[in-house]
From TrEMBL, chains A, B:
GO molecular function: DNA binding; DNA-binding transcription factor activity
Source species of the chain: Fictibacillus enclensis
Stated name of the protein: MarR family transcriptional regulator
The keyword Transcription is annotated on this UniProt entry: yes
Lineage: Bacteria, Bacillati, Bacillota, Bacilli, Bacillales
Top-rank taxon: Bacteria
Length: 141, 141
DNA sequence: ATTATATATTTGTATTATACAAGCATATAG
DNA sequence: CTATATGCTTGTATAATACAAATATATAAT
């Protein structure tokens, strides 16, 4: 039963956390749209290199049409760049631009600062452990 | 720098987790609408007792009008019940119904099962520690 | 080679969640 | 007893999304 209680607590806290995080995302994204999606797209392209629409859609488990529009919006803002795959004319490959990298960096900084502050009373050990546990959870999610 | 790395990892993993969790929520909520919101509302009413629209809106950091509609929908499904505050005729107090409790229980079961499975290889100690850390994080969030 | 089928993406349309503003009912203050 | 404040609901606009249709290109079958 202790196990159940622990899992219950985890479920409770994660659910609570998600609600708040989504709120923060939404409230900060008042300026224009997309902020929420764009961070993830930029991060993905920065980390794993150029990707096409289908790939991005799969990464985020969103419909291809949705990613098509989001990528189009990011392209319009000059944060990512479209190039065609020489071996397949149907495919658009998206690459993060220098501007996109800057924006990603700035966004990340803001987000990190928030977490930094949230966890300022934690010891390094605790933070490391927490990160490890989160990573393990995501690996099987 | 180690500290920064740990926080970076936490930020990365939590962001990833949120994306996936929101996806799951959305995909399960195809049936009708509201599942996402309703779980939280029911949980809130079950845990803290009757509440009025304004209170619920504050809890979830959503606009009052949004909560008004969500509560209306839950009321329509018989999951919560409206009563007026005898001391103030403007206020509607919402209470979870027996049916609502059953639905909450069922939803919770599904969610717990998912977490249970996700964490099945963890030791009890790890689960407990993880829950504790999550709670601490939420407390300052 | 020519046509049929499959795949990648974009664009059209509908739905849902949400916020903000206006309206309505009820309280409270002057 | 009127004026103002409060609580909620309803009207309207916007954004994110999915699904379906359209378009372009590639691959397979004859």
């Amino acid at each position: 039963m202790n196990n159940k209680n622990a899992v219950e607590r985890i479920e409770y806290e994660l659910t609570t956390f998600i609600r708040r995080a989504v709120y923060i995302d939404n409230s900060e994204n008042k300026i224009g749209n997309l902020e929420r999606a764009s961070y993830l797209i930029l991060r993905q392209l920065d980390e794993f290199g150029p990707a096409r629409v289908k790939k991005l859609a799969e990464s985020f488990k969103l419909d291809i049409s949705t990613l098509s529009r989001q990528a189009g919006a990011l392209e319009g803002k000059g944060l990512i760049e479209r190039s065609s795959d020489p071996s397949d004319g149907r495919v658009s490959l998206f690459t993060i631009t220098e501007l996109g990298r800057e924006k990603l960096k700035a966004d990340k900084k803001t987000r990190l600062a928030r977490y930094q502050k949230m966890l300022e009373t934690w010891t390094n050990e605790e933070k490391e452990l927490f990160g490890e546990l989160l990573e393990r959870m995501n690996d099987v999610f």
